[in-house]
Amino acid sequence: MNTVFKYTCCCGKTDFLKLNAEGAHCKTCDVMHPISNSGVIRFFKDLTNQNIYFDSLYADGYEHARDVIEKDNEVLFNTAKERSGMLLKSLGFQMQQPLEQLSILDAACGSGWVTAGFLQNEKINHCKLHAFDISPHGPEMLSRFNMSLKTTNDLEMSVQDAEAMNFGDATFDLIIGSSILHHFDCYEKFLKDCRRILKPKGKVLFGEPFAIGYGLGAAALLIAQKQLGTQYKMVDALYKDISFRNKSSRAMLNNLVDKHLFFQSTFIQLANQIGFSSVEFNSPNPPEYYRDHFINELLRERGIVDARLTEEANKIYEIIFDLFDAKSFEHSISPFMDIVLTQ
Q: May I ask the CATH class of domain 40-208?
């Protein structure tokens, strides 16, 4: 029995791995990678600030700092079909016709909710999916969920470092990375690797935070706070964090878990340099969402309940919003956007 996908071994050979009770073996040099009882192949064993951080969150029952995992991710996985469907629409799939015979990668998958959503989608059939993360906890949770499903799709899971992926060239039709690039020390290297493992005309989708959108919200909160004579440490910290991440050298960001905020112009230039044929940006929410809800969301996330601050910050933000409320500036308002790259 062989693996679903081909992998590049340390000996330089790219091939399917041979599976047996011990693990996954290279057919050329017989290097063995252990496999968990759930079928997760372990290519990566080192400790980094990333897997230490996320391992500790999983151990405490969280997927992210504010998201509690309930009933072993049952709630998260059972709502994943709709959310993953939105990603497919951002990729240009309207799903009038089924997706079949595609190879799909869920990179740095976290809990694996993207893959869980695809596996529950009755219009995704006879596809090959791979989900990997730097922490074993996410793929293991996905594996347990997958056992309860009946699907025509093949799923393979692994523990890998996204900045040193093991896949062979031209392996995938689609690559999905949900809010992952801003965690990487060198996201440029990862993007080059994505282009390498994409098939011709393949597509990559990332959902990422953007500096201008978050900066506008943070500035409105800081100005409102000063005008009212109040001071919240979490407001100050948000502003300082955005400023630090925008201005600091790469070396100063290495020890952070959330490292980068992006600019459209920089991303377009990078995508062109790497050789992607196109790059587009899609906001998951309409501009009105940010005008009416974004400030409230920022305050809620930071546990701040202050009616006066909320009202004043919204007034300031609406002035800024009106200044940029045109189609040409729509994406400047969005603090979080889907990025679609085409091979």
A: alpha beta
